Structure formats: C-alpha cells, structure tokens
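A protein record in our archive is deliberately plain, so that people and models can read it alike. The record that follows is passed on verbatim for readers who wish to inspect the format.
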Amino acid sequence: MLSAIVVILSMLAPSSVFAYSGYGLGTQQNPYRISSCAQLQEINNNLSGYYILVSNIDCTDYNFVHLAASSSFSGTLDGQNHTIKNLVIDSSGLFYSTTGATIKNINISGGSTSSSGDGGSFVAIATDTIMTNLHSSMSVNGGISAYVGGIVGSMSGTSSVDASSFSGYVSGSAYSGGIVGAMWDSTTSVTNSFTTGTLHPNGAYNGLIVGGFFAGTISRVYTSGTIDNGATTNIGGIIGDSQASLSNSFSAANFSGTHSGNGAVTAYNVSGNYTNVFYDKYITNTFGMCNIGSCTGGTAVNVGNTTPTYFMNNSTNGPFNAWDFNNVWQTTASYPTLRNIALFNDPTSIPNDGDANNDGTPDSYQANVLSVQDSKGVWSTVTIPSSSGCSLGDGLSTSAISISSDKGYSAQTNLTGFYVYCPTSGMTVTITIIYDKQYPSPLLRYYNPNTGAYSMINGATYTTKTIGGIVKTTATYDLRDGDYLDSDGLANGIIKDPVLLALAPNAPVTGFSISQKSSLGNINDLVLIGSGIVLTVFGVRRLYKNRA
C-alpha cells in the first residue's frame, strides 16, 4: 500500500529584522520558531514579533532574564500547547510589561521567579493584553510586594485572562492573587479559570483568584487551593478586595493555620456584587461569604459536611448551570477541569514510550525529532542533527486526493511528508527516518507532488536498529534546500520532502496508474493504493511529538 501525507506552510525566506538564530520572519504568516530557552530569550530583540513554540522546552540551568524590561512586548507568543519546564526567571515573570500583546497556549511547569513589585508567571504588568490557555505551576515569590499574581500581576485596559489555571505557589503583600494580583479597569476580565495552588499572603486583601478586584468582571471561576495565611486576616477564598461583579463561580478554598476574619468568597466587599456564587461552607470553615461588608447573591453548600461532593463530578448543580461543559470544561471524579489542559499531554502511542529515536530524551522536548502516524497506526520517525539549528514541522490532512503510482516499484511503507526549517537558505541537512519495523531490500523513493513522478534518492544508506526490543529499518540521506528532493525547488530555508520505502525494481507492479497530478497545496491527504484499486481516506489520524 501507498499513502501520502504532505503539509502546507509558508515559502518565505528566513530573513528577519534581527539576527534570529532560528527560522522565521516574525510575522503571523511566517513566525519565529522557538525550540530552546536561548531562543525564548531572543524575544527581547524584537518585542513586536510573532513567535511560536515548536517543541517543549527544558530551561534547567538556564539563567533567564525577564523580557520587556524597558519597552512593552506588543507581539504574539503562541505556545501551540507546549510546555516550558524549570524556567527560573530573575524577577517579575516571563514578561515585565505587555501592551496590545497576545500570549496563549503555554504551560509553565515548575521553575520560579521573584518580584520587588508587580509580578506573575507570565506578565508583571499587562495592558490591553489577551492571555488565553495559560497554565503555571511556578513559584511566584513576591515577598512584601503588592500586586503579585500566579498568572499576571496587574491588568488594565482591555486585558483578559481566559481558560487558564494556576497550581503553583504565590506569595505577596496586599492585593495579590492566585490568578491576578489586581484588576484596574472595567474592561478587564477573568473567565473560565481556576486555582489549585497555594497562596501565602504577607498582607491583607489577597484572594485565591484575584487580590485587588477594583474593576472588571470575573465569571465561571473556582478555587480548591490552599491559603497558607498564618496569622494574616482579611483574605478571601476568591477575592481580596471586591469592587466589581463576580458571577457563576464557587469557592472550596482551604484556609490553613489561623484563619479568623476571612471570607469564603471575599475578604473585604467594598462595592462588589454577586450572582450565582456558591461556596463550600465546611471546607472554607469561615464565618461567612464575606468578612467585611455586606454580601448577597451567594449560597453556602455542604454545611456540616452533609454534601461533600456537591461540586465534584457534576455539571448541573449551581453554578455549573452557567458553564460550558461541551467545549470549555469537563467533569472529573473531583472538581472540574479545563478541556484545553489535555492538549499539553504527549500522545501516548508514540513509539518507545515517547522516545522514538531512543536517545534518552522525550521527543516532545526535541524540535529535531518528528514522529508521524498513519491511519493504520503505523509510525515513521524523522530525525535531523540538533547541531544543524533546523527544526521539523508538519500539518494535518483536511481533504482527499489521489497519488500517482510508482511503476516498477512496490511500496513497503506509507509516504512520509515533512518540512525542515533552517536558519540559513541553501543548507544541507542529514535526514534519518526510523521505520516501524524491519523491511527487506529497502529503497528510498522521493515523490514530487508537482509532477506526480517518483525518483530514487541517491546515496541513501540503510541499516537496522533495535529500539524497545523491535528491530527497525533506518534510512539516512542528505537533503539540500532547493535541490531536486525539495518539493518547492527554492533555496528559501524550508525543505519539503515526501518519501517512502519501496521494493527493488522488477517487483510486482500494482497495475494501477493515474494521470492526475497534485499541487503541493492540495496533497496533504492520505491515499491508500492497493492492487488495482484506490481507497481514499478522509480525516487522516496523525500524532507527533510536537505541534509545529
């Protein structure tokens, strides 16, 4: 059988306004591709660029200096559901200041930062900034500083946090919170977010979601985290100081230590209003919904521990009647979680427990390793030397089309399509493809999607390698940007190369031929060619180590 997978991406050359070490132009169509902590640091060189993460990043032993210290970041950072691990930041957070920026689809796992002022895992001071699908288990140590948050310190203008969570440790003085330290304007918002981490307040008016809720809206949030407050009073399960609108939310905050004078939902209700708000009276173990000020619109549940699972494995009890459990939230045996969090997990079916090339490092942390799976569950793993500075990327099939047969040859594998992105045009890169098993007498064939013709890959070498107890065929060859094996034929920093393993000449021919040729823009499909028939498959299943 023969199948083909090819992807569509930009064909622009890898130039930029500064000497970026990777590929990209810093535009939405051709973003800077980040695959290391050093490249993440390079954002400082262009604070208005468009950046994407193309693999998980391990920042262990890297001394990261916070970004945008003197000028605001106004670009876009899209993590594409990747994780930054063990990021230790000198102060403030990933960005000190953002204005008109977008930061999305990133998980920060572990690591720490400290602050002598506003601080957060992602942003210290955010103005008109969109923050979506951000998650952190970082330690954010504000000490005696005010306006410290697990995700962002201070928000103003039209800044928003949505579909995000915090499971780390945050400490700060007045007006600090598990998600946001302070919200300053009526157009700021926090929605569809939760905290399970620990808040250590070193002053009053802290909350496990927001400390200083001076303006804006908060809706569809919850906390089941811990307030490690010692002798500090006037701490809120959700809000420290409330002067705006909270709706469709609940608190199951655990107040540890001395907790007299705190509120299950709000510490100090100045002028806040509440709609469809609930709190677990037994777990919060506080005198009431608010400590100071009048609070209405809240409902206490699990009084006397009579309904301890009220918020668990449930999508109908209040406030869940106002939540979207089809697209945003999902139930669990415990409290709800966000559906987007699962997108950060590596596919469990990648060969050799996620280390398909058997080098001891999970493939998800290597932009130079790419595993591709066809609809039959068969894998091929493409690798390039990390020293090349290039990265691998691919796309998804969305339509169906036929592929020309290769007369005189019999395909042993599916056609594996991949792109190589390099920082310099015209580079030659060594490619190694690890196939799912051992194949007899293999020959590597290149398919040109522009002409519909196949050709031999000269100089390819073949070996076998045992990985996870399975003997596998490997094929190694050199690719040069712009030569005959590059589908676009341009020395532009992108090498496009669909290939397959075939039996030697004079093997039985399928007898099938097709005159239709495919353009590169339409060939990102899977086609199975059997003896005398063509079976077109819609919706290719394709899993890989990164989401580049």
